[in-house]
Structures are given as structure tokens and as C-alpha cells.
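hey so u asked for the seq, here:
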Amino acid sequence: MRSPAALTCLQVVLLVVLFVLNLLLGTVHIPVGDICGILLGNTSANEIWRNIVLQSRVPQALTAMVAGAGLAVSGLQMQTVFRNPLAGPSVLGISNGASLGVAFVVLLSGSLGGVALSRLGYLGDVAMSIAAIIGALAVLGLIAYISQKVKGNVTLLIIGVMIGHLANAIIGVLKFFSAEEDVKAYVVWGLGSFARVSGDQMLLFVTLMALLLPLSMLLSKTMNLLLLGDAYAKNLGLNIQRSRLLVIMSSGVLVAIVTAYCGPIMFIGLAVPHLARALYRSSDHRLLMPGTMLAGGVLALVCNLLARMPGFEGALPVNSVTALVGAPVIASVLFRRSKSDVQE
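ran it, C-alpha cells below
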């Protein structure tokens, strides 16, 4: 029998090791001693190396770890509330809402303002983050309103998917009428990146997620009751509609914040909950929530490391790496589950 405490400790150790590797490895080789000196505040270190470590590698590693944890927890919440193993953070169109907000700002900036947002540097990044949050929260508010009117999970799921398709259709129209430079800037944002968050933005992002993730843990008991089915949960005194809304809002806010700062990151929210269930062999969310959060951080750090491994010029798109890593993980987990079901 696997000990949950031992598994959790192992994941914590793995998280620390991968975080350190993210600081050590990259396209530029920096000796371990110099990295330790830079982190300890040594002012005599090479200035270029200081900038690489403090302005690039540390923010990327922190962003990847926190974003991965947030997406993984969001995916677990969606799979639980809809009782669907293929449900993910983007299932209700919240990521599409963030993309639509960015599309309005990026694709219309050149046409209406005469200056492409991609040329504004830091101000452009802040504008995209704000637009993504507004777009995601607008869709989240719409979903929250609809969830009060619709009783069935399947109906709400279908409505969410339709909202996503509608947002993509509007984005397609905006692309058609936009300048090539603006379209390129939007496509680059859509590839996802842990590297665009730095400085005050990184501090705000990590602070927000550090507040939201513990709050999401408070829903563990509610999610356990939702797994029992509506009839049993009602008999135990659970308000189904209110509980479903709380879980959806928690998941949606996590997705909105991560998408705003990092772009739409795929596959982590879908794959990691299955990996956590396979590791802990339990459906108790008191174990799964922290386990999923740690596993999400680990997988995101692995993807960030692969995206900028030595030998590559620059960095690979994060979504390409998450798909390459996440697809085999979820396939192997589902294969093992189906194999064990046959043996039973």
C-alpha cells in the first residue's frame, strides 16, 4: 500500500530538485557556484549572468511552478463537478474568453489606434494581461449566471463549449480584418509562455495564486460529496446548485489568472488529475487536491526545462512541450486503468 505522506514528500523533493535544475540549465552555461552567489546577493558576479538568473530563470521557474499547480487544481475541479474524465480547465470557454479579450486589444490596436500593441513592450504586456482577465471573468460571470438557470451538468457543459466556439469565431473575424503584425503578436501570445511574466507582474501573479490555491483546498469536502451523486449529496445536506457554482467559480478564477499572465497553457489541467489519481489510488479530494497541486508544479517545471534545454536557440513554445509530455502521461494512465478493470 502506498503511503500518501511518503508520496507527498517525494513530490516536494522532486519539485525542489526541478526548480533548482531550472535555475542551472539553459542556453547559457553558468557555473553552479556563480548561481549560488547570485542568489545569495553577491554583487561581484558577472552582470550578464545576474540578469539571466534573476530576470529570466527565477521568474520563469516560479511562474511555471505556480501556473502548473493552478491549472492542475482547476482541471481536477472541473472533472469532479462534471464527473467527466475529459473535462479540463478550458471546458467552459473561460480560456477562450481570455483569448477573445486579448484578441480585441491586440488585433484592433493597430487598426484603430495606428500603433501595434506588440511595439509597446511592457505596457503592451500589461494591456494584454488586463484584457485577458476581463475577457475570462466576463465569460465566467456568464457561466455563473447560466448555472443558476440550468440544472443539468451536461447542459451547462454543452453551453460552455458553445461559448468557446462563439469566441473562436469572433477571433477568426478579427484576424481576417487585422494587420499581419497584430495577427503575429496574437499567435505568439496563444502559444503560451512562462517567460513573459517578470518583475512586479511576477510578484503579483505569485501572490494571487498563493491566495487562491489554499482557498480552493477548502472545497475538498464539497467535491467529495459531489462525487457521491446529486441524490446522496442532497440527503447529506449539500446545496447542489450553490456547491457546483462555488467549484466552477474557483476553477474559473484560477484559469483566468493563469491565462492572463501565461497565455492559454494546454494539457496540464487535463493530464495531471489523472496522474494524481493513479499515484494516490484514491478519490478522496483531501489527498488529491494537494497531490494534484504538487504534480502540476512538477510537470510544468519539466515542460519549462524541456522548452529551453541547451542546444535550442531561444525557447520552444510551451504548448508544444506540454502536449508532448502530457499526452503520453494521460494515455498511459487511462491504459492502466482500463487494463485493471479488465483484470477485475
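The mean pLDDT is 82. Residues 47-82 form the longest helix (36 residues).
lmk if thats what u needed
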